[in-house]
TrEMBL record:
PANTHER family: BETA-XYLANASE, GLYCOSYL HYDROLASE. Its EC number is 3.2.1.8. InterPro entries: GH, GH10, GH10_dom. Belongs to the glycosyl hydrolase 10 (cellulase F) family. Residues 1-26 form the signal peptide. This is Beta-xylanase. Transmembrane segments: none annotated. It comes from Microbacterium alkaliflavum. Residues 45-374 form the GH10 domain. It catalyses: Endohydrolysis of (1->4)-beta-D-xylosidic linkages in xylans.
């Protein structure tokens, strides 16, 4: 048990579940507190975030800032169900620095302001990644030394700009390939050309981020770390080298993009072995995809093609959260998007979808109830 919760709240929560399973997701009344921000929303005691509070963890969501601004139902779910938010795209390099040394802070600022008004913490995503880099950087004619300096400038400027407002930063994202080799990017190649190692490259980035924002917890974030294998083993060895060299790394993020066709990973073991190094761990981008049915016009639905795999999705959602709750150093569990209507999955995996907690119409799926049940059991 991570935190005790008042008996009466527990009784009320259980009673409301028994009577009306979706009551926790109904649109709340406007806030009664006259001092509350116009952006703040009423948090139901049976919401994911209230139950997560009692279980002693943050439950987060990746946010599309256009939908946050323009879709009331979406905004209501973000603010009432989640206690942590991650920018799905607007803190990536191409958005934040679209032209060299020209910064576009507004979309990320809007997300942080909304989070602060709603008592949410923010996960910063991401300072350094090989995707979603601006064209001026990827097609510029920069020497290795110039690339290192551009990297230093971006990391320090962004981390300093948001300093004090970010709980956890994904400082580097996806630095290993599935075979356990270190991923070749414009930055790793620049460091190699300068005669510097992968540890020196990643060490620089963490040191710069720490210097600019000493209060943020600094994470390395990646996918497929959930499974024991060449990638998670390489990451495990690499992180130990960073720690031995005194690099200010405080956490490892397990993205958690699962697919029913590949089996459930030995997630708890992997979370625990990184935690045993003295690090925080987190589930940072959970979604669980499967093949879905197609309409006559060829568009995909959010209905699993195989009902058995649909049922497996629900079990796996519970399993990912249970794995996090079983590891003391795992206190942050984030899902990668609100609803199946705006998930990245159908655009990247042909024929697949239904990966999130809410359906195409932003209504809660059984996956939601499964998470709430796990949280109730943990509190
Ligand atoms: O911004 C442009 C817009 O100007 C253009 O009109 C539109 C037309 O396609 O594209 C927009 O860019 C899209 C961008 O998201 C912003 O919405 C890209 O096409 C689209 O490919 C991009 O996808 C994002 C993806 O990262 C890029 O690799 C997803 O939304 C985002 O969910 C996804 O997130 C990643 C994490 O950051 C890291 N881990 C994996 C995860 C899933 O891929």
């Amino acid at each position: 048990m991570r935190a005790s919760r008042p008996l009466i709240a527990g009784v009320l929560a259980l009673a409301s579940v028994a009577v009306l399973p979706t009551a926790a997701f109904a649109a709340p009344a406007p806030p009664a507190n006259p001092n509350a921000s116009e952006h703040s929303a009423v948090i139901g005691e049976n919401s994911l975030r209230a139950l997560a509070d009692e279980a002693g963890i943050k439950v987060g969501v990746a946010v599309n800032t256009d939908l946050l601004a323009g879709n009331g139902k979406y905004r209501n779910i973000v603010n009432t169900q989640f206690s942590s938010v991650t920018a799905e795209n607007v803190m990536k390099w191409e958005t934040l620095e679209p032209a060299q040394r020209v910064y576009n802070w507004a979309p990320a600022e809007a997300l942080i302001a909304n989070a602060e008004a709603n008592g949410q913490v923010v996960r910063g995503h991401t300072l350094v990644w090989h995707n979603q880099l601006p064209t001026w950087l990827t097609s510029g004619n920069f020497s290795p030394a110039e690339l290192r300096s551009l990297l230093e400038n971006h990391v320090k400027t962004v981390a300093a700009h948001f300093a004090g407002r970010i709980q956890q930063w994904d400082v580097v994202n996806e630095i290993f390939n599935d075979d356990g080799t270190f991923r070749q990017t414009i930055f790793s190649q620049a460091y190699a050309a300068l005669g510097l190692s992968a540890e020196q490259y990643i060490g620089d980035v963490f040191r710069w981020a720490h210097e600019a924002d000493p209060s943020a917890l600094l994470f390395y974030n990646d996918y497929n770390l959930e499974f024991t294998g060449p990638k998670s083993n390489a990451a495990y060895a690499f992180v130990q080298k960073l720690l031995a060299a005194g690099v200010p790394i405080q956490g490892v993020g397990f993205q958690g993009h699962l697919d029913t066709q590949y089996g459930f990973p030995d997630l708890q073991n992997n979370l625990q072995r990184f935690a045993d190094l003295g690090l925080q761990v987190a589930l940072t981008e959970v979604d669980i995809r499967t093949f879905v049915t197609q309409k006559n016009n060829g568009t995909y639905t959010d209905t699993p093609a195989d009902p058995a795999e649909g049922a497996q999705q629900v079990d796996w959602w519970a399993g990912t959260l249970e794995a996090c709750l079983a590891v003391e150093a795992c206190t942050s569990y984030t899902v990668w998007g609100v609803s199946d209507a705006n998930s990245w999955i159908p655009g990247f995996f042909t024929g697949q979808g239904a990966g999130l907690l809410f359906d195409m119409h932003n209504n809660p799926k059984p996956q939601c109830d499964a998470l709430r049940e796990v949280l109730r059991n943990a509190a």
